[in-house]
Amino acid sequence: MSLSSQKYLEQKLYQTNKSIDYKFNENQYIEEFQKYIDSTYGAHYSTNKFQSTEVIIDRGHGTGFCMGNVDKYANRYGNKGTRDDARKDLMKILHYALIQLYIHDEEL
């Protein structure tokens, strides 16, 4: 997809989203998810110039790593720690799935 096509779609989506009555507070969860992702860039996961995930992807193991982590946190959900810990596992599932979406799109 060209950059101009992508910008057009983003603009249309933004205009459409203004009038959507979200039934499940998706807009709020997306905003929270963005903040969660931002926080990982300041955490110990990115203390060096590169994140470990970048190195794993560059070595050709990104899909296995991401999908393995999605599976790991999905299986752990609700079975370890507190309710808050389970919620954190959901955020990790979403984050690894989003990184896998990037890998998927880059491989095409």
How do the strands and helices of this protein lay out in sequence?
Elements (H helix, E strand, L loop, with lengths): L2 H15 L8 H15 L11 H7 L3 H15 L6 H25 L1
What does this molecule look like?
The protein has 108 residues and is an all-alpha fold. The chain has one domain. The protein has helices at residues 3-17, 26-40, 52-58, 62-76, 83-107. The longest helix has 25 residues, at 83-107. The chain starts with a helix and ends with a helix. The mean pLDDT is 88.
The average pLDDT is: 88
Strand content: under 5%
Share of residues in helices: over 70%
Cα-based radius of gyration, to the nearest Å: 16 Å
Summarize this structure briefly.
The chain is mainly alpha-helical. The chain is built from five helices and no strands.
